[in-house]
Specification:
heterodimer; A: about 325 residues; alpha/beta; eight-stranded mixed beta sheet; six-stranded parallel beta sheet; 10 helices; B: about 350 residues; seven-stranded parallel beta sheet; two-stranded parallel ribbon; 14 helices; 11 strands; about 40% helix; globular
């Protein structure tokens, strides 16, 4: 496990505040933030008893939102998506880093408003789409943006596995914003746009077809979408399921070839050409998500890497917003 | 009958619920977390742990649950919690069917296969937990208990096997070992579900142990070749089998080479036999010490490739898991039918663009 550089010249790890002490904070952030050299100092949850127990577990202190607002240091928002817009806006401050868990916000309008507000205040807003640290996705992005495969023509994203994540609030089964599209689907769509080099600009979106197993929060869905991007049009087929395993990969078809990129951290990419395909091994991949969360914290909380800045998530927000609001076909 | 299925929201559980409901039984699944969504559409009812006391008396309880998340040192406590749930569900009279695994004889089936209780031994957490569950259930339920040990569960969307192998094929990772084409020891999930429903209906099979791997004589290459053809890829094979588990002394000596105390503990924890001793010690260690160790990044973020090594051991298993089932039961799903279901799933899942075809 890589250790983070100690910040501000001192010998103490940097303090981070967390808003939202649910399953994500407990299972992931509580372990990976310390591993990246951060100390969880202040925590807040709308349920005081949840905040208190989480504070005890991480050696921090339960605090009010006002206290967190006035304290120095970065803030991580790990609450249900419905609350993201209001919380991010409230916690913005000059030079402050505010990291919002995925999905960023529900609508493109909200995302644009927050990016503009963050710029106006002088804050740095990040979004915790940690899969952007996956080596295979970065390799694919480098290959595609080099132009070696020509322009991107089609994205085929399929992600599914039996859902067992034990949320405390049950928003994934009770909240219209908790369905598979905005939950894990946001990761998959973002990674596809990132790997294909399509996250710099906000595309115009035409939704051709959306099918869901039930009204939101849906647990299974398929959508066919066109994105008008700078170089032309890119079609997107999206399949998501909480019921069964799907291929768990992104297929990126370009003018001169195609790539299959895993949606997991495995360090492999399959490259397709006219005469067949071959697999390339990419350094740094491996089982387990923890090292990639650690890398994300270093790149966002320390380096303020541009590809974690909120403006780079306008594209995925636009796609998700368009699919969410499209009329259901079946 | 009223059948309660503990762990019925899992992959096998859904097929079991459908099989029981088709046969006209009332089925209730005990779920935790979001498990309810996996029961929808099966015709089974759902209840949470704390609602069991309100349920109508059951005739049979099928347990598919086992400790599959959290730190392995907590497996005994989680096994006990499952046993308590099953006990509550079964009351004093219901029959109990425990779904276990061929792995109780080791990933290489190195222990003698007996359709009876198997001795406890130190091994990887999964195997220890499964053996322990068999013993605890036997002590709790005696002649009311029937144990079914399943082979490697194959079928559409099987995360452990079909999807795992498809992923390895797609991304060029080994799906076997050169010159060591193992017995698949597989069972189709629909056959497993059908046998469980059969056992639930049979009132005179208490105290028995059964084994199911109706595809077991097939070698892994026979199952994997049609998958590879469907994906238009060539299977990759590892050059040699992972090292076999040695003795405790061998594991400790190997781990001692050039390591400091904390990384030594972590290394030992990943070995089958030494890890079992480490877990035993950790269970009695002061909680504050464990918390302090867990907070250290190196202790909590293991990047062991143990899972891949175990998969290769199973894929190159030199022994067949022999099926032992009641004579009247016949598996309803043939290999060709099993392949058709898998083929259809490959297209649905995005591995193939068209159905891979009727024939494997």
């Amino acid at each position: 496990m890589p250790s983070a550089p100690m910040l501000n010249g001192g010998t103490h790890p940097r303090d981070v505040a967390i808003v939202g002490c649910g399953a994500v904070a407990r299972r992931l952030h509580a372990k990976t933030l310390p591993a990246a050299g951060f100390r969880i100092r202040l925590v807040h949850d709308i349920r005081p008893e949840i905040a208190e127990s989480f504070a005890r577990a991480v050696g921090g202190r339960a605090a009010t939102l006002d206290e967190i607002q006035n304290a120095p240091g970065p803030v991580l928002i790990a609450t249900p998506p419905r609350t993201h817009r209001a919380l991010v806006e409230r916690l913005l401050a000059p030079s402050r880093i505010v990291i919002c868990e995925k999905p960023f916000v529900a609508t493109l309008a909200d995302a644009l408003a927050l990016v503009q507000r963050g710029d106006a205040v002088g804050a740095w807003i990040g979004v915790a789409h940690f899969r952007r640290t996956f080596p295979a996705a970065r390799f694919a992005r480098a290959l595609i943006t080099s132009g070696a495969l020509g322009a991107v023509r089609h994205l085929d994203v399929a992600e599914g596995e039996r859902f067992s994540w034990p949320t405390i609030t049950a928003y994934t089964t009770a909240d219209a914003l908790g369905g598979v599209l905005l939950d894990t689907g946001s990761h998959a769509v973002d990674l596809a746009l990132f790997a294909a080099g399509l996250d710099h600009h906000t595309p115009t979106i035409d939704v051709h077809d959306v099918r869901r197993d039930k009204p939101e929060p849906a647990h299974e869905m398929e959508a066919h979408v066109s994105l008008a991007v700078l170089h032309g049009h890119v079609t997107l087929r999206l399949r998501l399921s909480r019921y069964e395993c799907l291929a768990n990969r992104i297929l990126i078809r370009c003018e001169h070839g195609a790539l299959a990129v895993p949606l997991s951290p495995r360090g492999r990419v399959r490259v397709y050409g006219p005469d067949g395909s071959s697999v390339m091994a990419v350094e740094g991949g491996g089982p387990g998500y923890a090292p990639f969360f650690v890398r994300q914290w270093q790149e966002s909380l320390v380096d303020r890497a541009d590809w974690f800045h909120a403006r780079r998530f306008l594209a995925v927000t636009a796609v998700l917003d368009a699919i969410t609001t499209a009329r259901v076909m079946g | 009958m009223h059948v309660i299925v503990v762990g019925g929201a899992g992959y096998v559980g859904r097929f079991v619920c459908c099989a029981l409901v088709r046969r006209g039984h009332q089925v209730t699944v005990v779920v935790r977390g979001p498990g309810e969504i996996h029961v929808a559409g099966t015709g089974a009812g759902v209840c949470r742990n704390d609602e069991i006391a309100q349920l109508e008396q059951s005739d049979v309880v099928i347990n598919l649950a086992f400790p599959n998340d959290g730190p392995p040192i907590e497996d005994p406590a989680r096994n006990q919690a499952i046993l308590d749930l099953v006990g509550q569900s079964a009351g004093t009279s219901a029959r109990v069917i425990l779904v276990s695994t061929l792995a109780v004889f080791g990933y290489n089936l190195e222990s003698p296969q007996v359709a009876a209780s198997t001795p406890r031994r130190r091994d990887v957490p999964y195997i220890e937990a499964k053996i322990s569950a068999e013993h605890e259930f036997s002590r709790a339920f005696g002649r009311r208990l029937t144990v079914l040990r399943l082979g490697n569960v194959w079928g559409p969307a099987s995360a452990s096997w079909t999807a795992a192998i498809a992923d390895c094929l797609l991304f060029g990772e080994p799906v076997g070992v050169r010159d060591a084409d193992g017995f698949s020891n597989a069972t189709d999930v629909a056959n497993a579900a059908d046998l469980l429903a059969f056992l639930a209906e049979a009132s005179d099979l208490g105290g028995r142990y059964y084994h199911l791997a109706e595809l077991g004589a097939m070698r892994w290459t026979e199952l994997i070749a049609p998958l590879a053809r469907a994906l238009h890829v060539d299977p990759i094979l590892a050059r040699e089998r992972p090292d076999e588990a040695g003795s405790l002394a061998e594991e400790v000596l190997e781990a001692l080479r050039g390591r400091g105390p904390l990384s030594l503990v972590r290394t030992l924890a990943e070995r089958p036999i030494a890890g079992s001793y480490v877990r035993s010690v950790a269970r009695v260690a002061p909680p504050a010490l464990l918390r302090a160790l867990r907070r250290r990044p190196n202790f909590t973020a293991s990047q062991s490739d143990g899972a891949d090594a175990d998969m290769l051991r199973v894929l190159s298993c030199p022994r067949q898991f022999e099926t032992v089932v009641p004579g009247e039961w016949i598996p309803p799903v043939s290999w060709n039918e099993s392949w058709r279901a898998v083929s259809s799933w490959l297209q649905r899942a995005g591995y193939t663009e068209t159905d891979a075809g009727e024939e494997p």
